[in-house]
Amino acid sequence: MAGEEGGSSGSSPAAEPSPDTGGAGAAGGGEAGGGSGYDSKCIFCRITHGEEPGTELLPCEYEDLVCFRDIRPGAPHHYLIVPKIHFGNCKTLKSEHIPLVERMMAAGKSILQRNKFTDLNDVRMGFHWPPFCSIAHLHLHVLAPASQLGFLSRMVYRLNSYWFITAEQLMERLKSESATS
After folding, report:
1. Contact call for residues 126 and 104 (beta carbons, < 8 A)
2. In what helix (H) or strand (E) does residue 58 lie, and over which residues does it extend?
3. pLDDT digits (tens, 9 = 90+) for 29-74
């Protein structure tokens, strides 16, 4: 989908474990849904570890996350917030990952504000829902202004679709899972 570079991101075992730099134990170990360290075949793992010199990492207040511009922007401001530890996709997350998603959302709002975008009511933040993920490494799309999405971007990042879930909808799912368990 938009902004993700080609390249394999399969779920091969971690090549070298990455230290857990996240707060609140959000990364977890290698359990189902947990972070699995580093995958050298994953473009986002390489970007988060500074191994892709063509990708400029933007300031991020959380040590366990990185932020960079989408390579195929769907809006004037289109950023990706990516955990340094490899997580498959948003569907693999469990209720214990709520703090991670909250940090990702906060980082998204912060990068917009640092880039002089202040109308946080005109923002779309969300995730592609499997199997509609071109990169199998968890990443939050932050798009603004949402009112200026082009035709194709309105389809790719469409609300209430089978292929895109807003960050708020994901949080609701994770919280309801927590309430039932």
Report:
1. no
2. strand 57-58
3. 333 456 678 888 999 999 999 999 999 999 999 999 999 999 999 9
User: Inter-axis angle of helices 167-180 and 98-114, to 10 degrees?
Assistant: 160
Residue type, 89: N
Q: Are 171 and 79 in contact (CB under 8 A)?
A: no
Radius of gyration, CA atoms only, the chain: 15
Q: What is the pTM of this model?
A: 0.81
Spell out the alpha helix ranges (H) of the chain: 43-48, 98-114, 151-156, 167-180
Strand pairing category for 57-58 and 77-83: unpaired
Q: Would you state the structure tokens that stand for residue 172, as one six-digit string?
A: 């609701």
Catalytic residues: 139
